Every structure is written in C-alpha cells, then in structure tokens.
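Morning, I've got a small favour to ask if you have a moment. It would help a lot if you went through both lines with me. Thanks so much in advance, here it is.

***
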Amino acid sequence: VQLVESGGGLVQPGGSLRLSCVASGFTFSRYDMSWYRQAPGKERELVAGITGGGGLRNYADSVKGRFTISRDNAKNLMYLQMNVLKPEDTAVYYCNARATMLGEYWGQGTQVTVSS
C-alpha cells in the first residue's frame, strides 16, 4: 500500500497550487479520501474530504471557497486545488485513505509554503 503526494512548493500569497495523491496497493474507490495538514507547532488538521464515489465533499471552514477536492477513481488519483493561498496555509499536506473495517493509510506529506 502506498500513497504518494506531489505538487507542493513555494508560492506567493494569492497564488495557486494543485496537490496530487496517487494511490496503489488497495481498491481506491472503496476508500474515503482526505487531505490533512500540519503546520509547525500545531496539530494535524483535516482540510478536505471526499467519499469513495466522489459524491460528497467536506471542507474545513478555513479553506471553504478557496480549495477544491476531487478524485479520479479510474487513475487512483486524488487532487486538492488550492487558490487564493494565504501564509496561514503553510504546512505539510498529507493524503489519507480510510475505509471502515478495511483500514487507514497515510502518505509521507508534501510541503506547501506561502510566502512573499
């Protein structure tokens, strides 16, 4: 089982980034997927989640209207489109897969830094 994030980097305030998470080793469509983030000195927090079929999505209040989560089950991919980035969005972003009775998996994280 593997989850690999990519797409992080340094961006100026107001800019955009798209994160990707590619999954392997499990039946991707059976798992709800989420993005979490952890800033230095803070606890890991949920950013956005999407159900296995993609029909339901949820977002943290801090990113509503700016971030969009999506998935492509045919390609075992999940995305996080991040627009109007703010310095407080700076964190390591993690991909998470979870399914009741099946288990939970984490990626290794990708750094997002928003700074001028």
Q: What stands out?
A: The mean pLDDT is 97.
